[in-house]
Structure to design on (388 residues):
């Protein structure tokens, strides 16, 4: 049978023009598809294709009627190419992922969600404003996904944290309708909370709804960036949030720091972010901190180190940010040992003296000297270090 077919095919080919024959047997694609056999699905803009490359799965493209989440379609100009089989493989993986969606099942609608290396996000905000521009919910979700993965990457760089230092995927949700927030809290977290919800340490979860500060694109992005830090560090090395076991200064300092690094200011307050719209110099802190430390000679660290995150005022948290920034610049190799020692529920003073190898007072002197040198008297940029 096989021999017969081959003979027939050869006979048929002999009748065709040389170029038509080449097309039939070609499994090498064509020029239009860059010899891949596939082209990007035209239902999505270039920037969505870029965003999708950063995430593992996205429910919005998974529901695309043309590509079913493969993001690729067959090239119409040629038979096939080396990547043709990828379409079916990817579609199968996407379908399997999308089938596991208890949130959509429960709410009986398509809940937009996305999965990245370390996060599962529900960003159900709908269209939000970015200044005067409107940004659709799908893009908002991807901006947020990029931010939280950027935090993960910076923490990985600063701490040398690897994937297996974490115990969970961080779940972060934002809802347009407060009723959805309340309903999923009850169903999935057995919580009757109606306000913002944050669970740190083991299986971190975060759920909020769009209101006040969190109803714009920058507001939502800063909120997620800030809280991604709390979640990641609470889950790394050991499932324990150290914000109330001696590491409030480290917990608050780091969350404000990564928020500041990604968005050039820090607006969030660590406790009850939504209900207490506090302001400390509009979120641009460096100049104010420098001025405060110059004016107030009283030592700050002995007072700050024993405080829990929840007991700090926003100006206290700003000082913790400045202390964390000093650590990042002057003692980056000490961040991981500090966090690991804090996970043993030891006091901040003990941990700092052991890891940095000097007394808290000497550490404060070094930190304040650095603030004096590097923090600006105008604007918000770090000043260049003096040549030593
Ligand atoms: Zn082609
Ligand atoms: Zn997407
Ligand atoms: Zn598509
Ligand atoms: Zn915080």
């Amino acid at each position: 049978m096989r021999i017969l077919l081959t003979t027939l095919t050869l006979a048929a080919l002999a009748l065709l023009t040389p170029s038509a024959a080449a097309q039939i047997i070609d499994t090498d694609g064509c020029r239009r598809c860059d010899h891949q056999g596939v082209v990007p699905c035209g239902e999505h803009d270039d920037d969505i294709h870029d965003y999708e490359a950063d995430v593992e799965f996205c429910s919005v493209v998974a529901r695309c009627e043309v590509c079913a989440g493969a993001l690729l379609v067959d090239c119409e100009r040629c038979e096939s190419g080396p990547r043709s089989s990828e379409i079916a493989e990817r579609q199968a993986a996407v379908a399997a992922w999308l089938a596991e969606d208890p949130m959509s099942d429960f709410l009986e609608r398509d809940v937009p969600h996305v999965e990245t290396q370390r996060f599962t996000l529900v960003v159900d905000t709908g269209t939000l404003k970015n200044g005067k521009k409107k940004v659709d919910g799908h893009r908002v979700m991807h901006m947020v996904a990029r931010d939280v993965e950027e935090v993960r990457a910076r923490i990985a760089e600063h701490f040398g944290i690897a994937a297996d230092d974490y115990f969970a995927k961080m779940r972060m949700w934002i809802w347009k309708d407060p009723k959805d927030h309340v309903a999923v809290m009850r169903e999935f977290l057995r919580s009757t909370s109606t306000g913002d919800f944050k669970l740190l340490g083991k299986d971190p979860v975060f759920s909020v709804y769009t209101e006040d500060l969190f109803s714009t694109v920058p507001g939502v992005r800063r909120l997620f960036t800030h809280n991604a830090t709390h979640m990641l560090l609470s889950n790394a090395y050991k499932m324990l949030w150290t914000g109330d076991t001696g590491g409030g200064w480290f917990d608050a300092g780091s969350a404000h720091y990564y928020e500041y690094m990604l968005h050039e200011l820090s607006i969030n307050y660590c406790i009850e972010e939504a209900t207490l719209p506090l302001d400390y110099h509009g979120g641009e802190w460096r100049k104010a901190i420098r001025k405060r430390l110059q004016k107030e000679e009283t030592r700050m660290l002995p007072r700050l180190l024993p405080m829990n995150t929840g007991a700090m005022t926003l100006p206290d948290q700003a000082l913790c940010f400045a202390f964390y920034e000093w650590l990042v610049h002057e003692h980056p190799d000490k961040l991981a040992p500090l966090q690991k020692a804090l996970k043993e529920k030891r006091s901040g003073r003990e941990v700092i003296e052991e890891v940095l190898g000097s007394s808290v007072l000497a550490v404060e002197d070094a930190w304040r000297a650095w603030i004096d040198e590097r923090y600006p008297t105008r604007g918000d940029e770090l000043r260049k270090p003096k040549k030593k």
